[in-house]
Write a structure and sequence with these properties.
The protein is α/β, with parallel strands linked by helices. It is built from 10 helices and 11 strands. Helix 4 (91-104) packs across helix 5.
Length: 277
């Protein structure tokens, strides 16, 4: 830890072994390492950090205008592919979900699997709670996975996450199956693009590329304790059909500025009393 904050000094960063000159008024080694990561890491061609509206494709300009709600540390160099903008959970919503899962998780469940990590919004929020002994994050798209890893470094949680590239169903069955007795699953699956917003009632049977039924069936083999993040207009009757007889499951809307952004269905033995507080 640096203690003489007034000095100017050349400090060697352990991340890249280079020396950097910094004003030491508010900087410790972690800050140096993070800045060095930003300078040294090169983004793939399909990954961007847009700094002005003129750079942003027209179809994601509305999302870029809300960039600080998506990632509060956006200006520190957050990476996203153009498609990833559509799928990132806004940070306040991700933080609320993460806090509720941490508070209500069944006893003995200390591992969280994020089945569709995307650019890392939910994964980072889970890591920041400090609840989980380990987080396993799965993402099929290699460029988006690079974004998630990079963004986790910005938030300082990269050491709490193990990343997997590939199909979540296969990875759960083959590589993570021994962890099933200790795990819960969070899944924010693709919804088939932003066109879902025009549906008054969203049909979970035809959700692409994975229906609610398939998600539930596949994940139940691994763990009955799961949280699925789905469109706010989802058909509640279709959700209810998957609730085991004699059980109750919580469906919760997550709102920002008075408007619902999405909902979560909590399956398994999450503490419903804590969720309703």
């Amino acid at each position: 830890m640096i203690t003489d904050w007034a000095q100017l000094a050349r400090l060697r960063c352990k991340q890249c072994k280079h020396h950097h000159l910094y004003q030491l008024s508010r900087i410790n080694h972690l800050d140096l390492s993070r800045k060095c990561i930003m300078e040294e890491e090169e983004a793939p061609p399909e990954v961007h950090h847009y700094s002005s509206i003129q750079e942003v494709p027209w179809d994601i300009q509305n999302y870029w205008a809300q960039r600080y709600q998506i990632f509060s540390k956006y200006d520190e160099g957050v990476w996203l592919t153009d498609d990833a903008w559509f799928g990132v959970t806004p940070e306040p919503v991700a933080n609320k979900i993460a806090a509720q899962m941490a508070e209500s998780a069944p006893a003995g469940r200390m591992i969280l699997v994020d089945a569709f990590a995307g650019a890392g919004g939910n994964t980072i929020a889970f890591a920041l709670t400090g609840k989980w002994k380990r987080i396993y994050a799965i993402e099929k798209n290699p460029a988006v996975l690079k974004c998630a890893k990079h963004n986790a470094k910005i938030y300082g949680v990269q050491d709490k996450i193990t990343w997997f590239e590939g199909d979540c169903f296969e990875i759960l069955q083959k590589q993570l199956k021994d962890l099933a007795p200790y795990s819960v699953i969070f899944a924010s699956p693709p919804w088939g693009g932003p066109g879902y917003r025009s549906d008054q009632v969203f049909n979970l049977k035809t959700m692409e590329p994975y229906s609610l039924q398939r998600l539930y069936d596949e994940y139940s083999v691994f763990s009955k304790h799961m949280v699925l993040f789905i469109p706010r207009t989802s058909n509640l009757k279709q959700i209810a059909k998957l609730v085991p007889e004699g059980q109750k499951n919580m469906v919760m809307h997550y709102c920002m500025e008075g408007a619902s952004k999405a909902l979560c269905i909590f399956y398994g033995d999450f503490d419903v009393a804590r969720l309703s507080q």
